[in-house]
Amino acid sequence: MMIMLSGNIPPASGLSSSSAIVSATVLGTAYLHNATLNKQTLATISAECEKFIGTQGGGMDQAIAYLAQEGCAQLIEWNPLRATPIQLPANAVFVIANSLSEANKAATSDFNQRVVECRLASRLLAKQMRLNWRDLNRFADLQKALGYSLEQMEALVHTNLALNVYTRTDLLKLLEVTEEDFSENLLTPNTRNSQTFKLKQRALHVFQEALRVQQYIETAKSTPDDCISRMKTLMKQSHESLRTLYECSHENLDRMVHISDQLGVGTRLTGAGWGGCVVALCDGEDESKRFVETLKTEFYGNIPKAQTSDIASLCFTTSPQRGAEIYMLEKEKSIWSPSA
């Protein structure tokens, strides 16, 4: 089988370019081999394949690549993988803006460090609650085992994760494990030299972000007059949490968020962070155009690299569209989509 790849998603931009390549390749391979796989199975296979590059991703990018629907956000849930469409306000316009700071998550340990910190936080909380902690390295599994609400999980983190920074020695003692066990079974290959871990901050971000997702959905479904305004606030809160608790932002991303705040636009980083893009929510075309023009002068106008780039490819409006499909030129431009 020979494959030629082409695309227009900029790499290391937080727009899931690697997931797009993997998902497109898996879909094409399945089609050529007449494999009758539904979208959920294709997404699961794609997520597993991407781990071969060394990043411990959760599968969200691959899921939305297949399960996206036009005009909707998607609530992605797991075990089993499923998606619930959330109709967005008709006047909502999204802007994608590239910070021009590349974020290659496979090249550093930053991304996996956050994954490890979340897993360690879940396991430590599980041990403190006298559960089988080795099997509970995901917050969702821990929450289910405890039967707690998100608010209760947030309170548990505040109560039980007392230290702002846990050392390696702290965790060896609290988990009652050996250095060898800790290194081989609780860390990833590129985090085995890590000496400090911020468990409380990462856990708080995860549970507070989950609460924001719930609030976002409730706002979209209730369709009040200030729906978009409330969604903007949630996006601003999300970015602030990513900046201060998850610590995966970048000065260029923060500059764009600051500009958006001045214009009343709701903006957050998208993707893994440490560079890449922001996604901004605007109330109508006029606001989105004003935001784009302001970014061109106040942000891109001060970056030399932007002067030799096509600005339209760096900063543009967009909207949710359908997920991955096969487009067949030899069959009168027909489109084949995997089953739901």
Provide an overview of this structure.
It is a single chain. The chain has 340 residues and is an alpha+beta fold. The chain has three domains: 7-85, no CATH class; 88-103 and 250-324, 2-Layer Sandwich (Alpha-Beta Plaits); 111-203, Up-down Bundle (de novo design (two linked rop proteins)), CATH 1.20.1440.340. The chain is 49% helix and 13% strand. The chain is built from 14 helices and ten strands. The protein has helices at 17-32, 39-50, 60-67, 110-128, 139-146, 150-160, 168-175, 179-185, 199-222, 227-244, 251-262, 285-298, 304-307, 311-314; strands at residues 72-77, 82-87, 92-98, 166-167, 196-197, 266-270, 277-283, 315-318, 326-328, 334-336. The strands form four sheets. It has a four-stranded antiparallel beta sheet. A two-stranded antiparallel sheet has the order 1-2. The chain has a two-stranded antiparallel sheet with strand order 4-5. β9 (326-328) and β10 form a beta hairpin. α1 (17-32) packs across α2, α2 packs antiparallel against α3 (60-67) and α9 packs antiparallel against α10. The longest helix is centred in the middle third of the chain and has 24 residues, at 199-222. It is globular. The mean pLDDT is 93. Keywords: ATP-binding, Kinase, Nucleotide-binding, Transferase. GO terms for molecular function: ATP binding; galactokinase activity. It comes from Anopheles dirus. One of its GO terms (biological process) is galactose metabolic process. InterPro entries: GHMP_kinase_C_dom, GHMP_kinase_C_sf, GHMP_kinase_N_dom, GHMP_knse_ATP-bd_CS, Mevalonate/galactokinase, Ribosomal_Su5_D2-typ_SF, Ribsml_uS5_D2-typ_fold_subgr.
